[in-house]
Amino acid sequence: VKENLIRQHPIKSKINRWMERKLLEERINFIRQHEWDAHQLSIDQCKALGNQQAAYFIQRDLTFRHDHESTLRHSLKSPVQPSRTIKCRRSIWFPKNWLIERTHPLPITRIPTLFAKYTYESVVEEARQRLIRADPDAQYNLRADTIYSTTTRYPFWRWKLFITRAYCWLSNVIYTLCLVVPFGSSFSFRALLALKPFRSNYELKREDLKLHEDPYSETQTFISRLVALWEHVGQSRRNFERVPDRGFLGKNIQRIFNRFWNYVVKGFFGTVSICVFYPVSCVLISTISFILGVLSPIWMPIVTLIFHILQILVYDANSSGEYGRKLFCVINILVTDFLLCGIVQPILVLIALIATPITSVLLVIYALLHRYSRGMYDRIMYHLIIKHRARVPAHDGFLARRIAGPGLAAEYFYQVASPEVLAALESLIEQNELKVYRSYIEQILNKPLEDYRMFFDEAFKPFSVKVQSMHGTVYGRMNDVVDGHIKNLRSTIEKRSDLLRLHRSSHHDRIRLTESDLTAVLIEGTQLVEKWYPQRIFSYLNKNELEKFWNDYDLEPNDWLSLASKLLQELFCRDFLTPLEQTDVFYSLKVDHSTVSKYAHMIHSASLHDDLDVATSIYLPETTYTIQQPTFNETILNPNETILDISTDYFGNYHAKTHGRIYRFFNHQAKYLKDAENLSKFVDYTSITCHFSIPIPLSHIAFVNVIIYNRDNNNSTTTISLKNISLQDILSLIEYHKKFYNAPMLPLNHNIA
Length: 753
What we know:
Elements: H1 2-8, H2 16-33, H3 37-48, H4 52-76, E1 85-91, E2 99-104, E3 109-111, H5 122-134, E4 139-143, E5 145-151, H6 157-184, H7 189-193, E6 198-199, E7 202-205, E8 210-213, E9 218-219, H8 222-242, H9 251-313, H10 329-389, E10 412-415, H11 418-460, H12 474-500, E11 511-512, H13 515-536, H14 543-552, H15 560-571, E12 585-588, H16 597-604, H17 650-658, H18 661-666, H19 671-679, H20 698-712, H21 727-737
Parallel strand pairs: 10-11, 10-12
Antiparallel strand pairs: 1-5, 2-3, 2-4, 6-9, 7-8
């Protein structure tokens, strides 16, 4: 290629940059032409060596990359959307250019614009009727303006917006001032000279898809206003004569005032005002509007520019939103970015660079002087006054303040007696018994209702009949009786529960026991739980409910010690099973007017053993754990995982040579970034070596075949980890495949030993 370039372009070939660019283009073209040759060569060699498995994987990789990779990359590419899209509307001047669009069903299509007041050829009329009959549910829209969109995606979008907005505003101003106001408004020349009222706007009718004159846009003319005025006068006179003579003064006298009001005030003065003021208003307004419209190409761009300048200076309504600034953008940029961050901040940094060490030295000197002077002062005061005269104060004062001692500990506990804990535990057991008993009795009370409802549904549900709990019916009376029993049951149980309920407060989290008391409470509490739960609670539960009970507490069945521990934690707090230590600060609590002699006798009769059972009274805080599902390393089936690092960075060399010294100076890369770049070397994505490594690594072929062999022979050697594959497994696999392939399974240029 280089020789051909020198032969064809003897002068240009002497330019090094031109030669490098042409050679680079030829390299890229060659790589693209032979991009898939390595895949096909690998497939042919694998088939020739009898390695059908590897050939299959390479063929699948070739099919995917050749047919589906580009489509998937395009569909999975993250879309780039502008922060904001600004729309400008331009009015279409003439109704014949208005757009009639079919908006539903999609896609949006445009149809010709026709007017109802005109007559068209039969071919056009038949085509329009066929369009209407083809889709009766279609939706159509009349659009009298054109929309221009400007996005904030590209640089200099504000200048594009300025040009677009100036063009749209100029067109709309000319249309309004030169066409609408002089020829279509109520004070136009047309309204002054026309004989009949006119309609300046059109609307789309769904019946024939034509533009009809809008009745709401009817405009009165000079003549029509005079005619309407005298018609109103005549109608008022006819209405007066039609009414019977039943007034206070009589119709002969009222007729004089009525004629004066209608003919003189309304008719004469109204006609004079219309004839004098209306023509002058039409001429002045239309003329001034037309002159402003003609001069709009001069002043409208200036107005648009002033509007954009005010947006930048005061309020930027078209901000793209990347900085979050809308008020006083230029002031923020000049003051914050340029003045403060660009000038003041570097100056302060330079000042701090000099002032910080000096300030640090002064602070160190002050700290040393303060430390030694204060220490000397404390020693003198202690040995002269405090040591001989001071004592522990009873309360805080301006000379001394207590910081430690009795009653001043930040972490303190309350110690309760063991019999009181057992009494509270038994009350909790009784509360649980009442809950289970209430649920059991309610099921018994509701059983007749359920049987009646089940019988009624089986008998009358095929006839679409349902049970209704109305007063007077059998089901209604049964329901009332059951509700009354349930209400009495709940009120009775609630009264008993209120007596047994232990009202919690913020001090419950600080209640503790000593180690010996806690051990005795656990022993006796276990006996209480083992005694009362099977007899008074489990007797109301069936097998499923009993299993659910143990599962809710996360305990094994009949684990009474753990159940007693759970109940104590529920009764007091989670850390209740942590005993008091000698270093803890605690206060003893006593209960007055209570009889706990029975529980005191239980504590004294408890048999305590100095063995490992005592260790069960101390529990660590509860924790949660998660078990991850087993996973399979799917990369072992990917023959394209390893990429050979033999590609050349042609683009990097090319750009490094084309840019000059100024570019390299301002884009100089730091040393630590160069070290990080060396960790991930360049991969040329246009190179054929990027898609596949030649030859295929032996480990992938061996692993895949060993997995298939073990799967077919029910061997779980490789189902756990690939590290278990040994050389003997690979050799046995080769011997196994010799029965099916005449050629060797592995490439001859690889030595597995």
